[in-house]
Amino acid sequence: MFRRIALLGLGIAAASATFARAGDLKVGDPAPAFALQGSDGKTHALADYKGKSGVVLAWYPKAFTPGCTKECQSFAGAGESLKGLKVAYFTASVDEADYNKKFAESLNADYPILSDPSKDVAKAYGVVHEGRAVPERWTFYIDKQGVIKGIDKNINVAKAAEDVAAKVKDLKLAD
């Protein structure tokens, strides 16, 4: 009996260590790979941009909620300034693809909103973790080589896209 409890404890400790590592991504780390369905019906993969352009991945908690709506509206409204930077940018949640498609349509979004209903990618980025079923509102800045160059954990939803454009310029992700 004691042996089973000890083994169970080791399993829990190993799982906890995995969650801790995923949540500890930092600047300079390789970005976790992803291939997620977008609201445009296409699958978008980090590997598609390797050697071509930087990538911005802005996680948000839940479609059709006030803060997330403001954040995604910001991206939809500032599409031209971001497109001019020649960087791929996405917002992402763990909502189902059909739900995010409706959300994107409601915003007239001119960029893909990504869906991760399995939460596998969200866990790899550390935005979903023990005690947190929906993503943290964090934005990751990834260079052409797939390396994380910035992580923003303090998002102003009303001017999220404006802040992203400034950070992309500061990090020289579009060069």
UniProtKB/TrEMBL annotation:
A molecular-function term among this protein's GO annotations: thioredoxin-dependent peroxiredoxin activity
N-terminal signal peptide: 1-22
Thioredoxin domain residues: 25-173
Statement: the UniProt record of this protein carries the keyword Signal: yes
Keyword Cytoplasm: no
Domain of life: Bacteria
Function in brief: Thiol-specific peroxidase that catalyzes the reduction of hydrogen peroxide and organic hydroperoxides to water and alcohols, respectively. Plays a role in cell protection against oxidative stress by detoxifying peroxides and as sensor of hydrogen peroxide-mediated signaling events.
PANTHER family registered for this protein in UniProt: AHPC_TSA FAMILY PROTEIN, THIOREDOXIN-DEPENDENT PEROXIDE REDUCTASE
Protein name: thioredoxin-dependent peroxiredoxin
Species: Paludisphaera mucosa
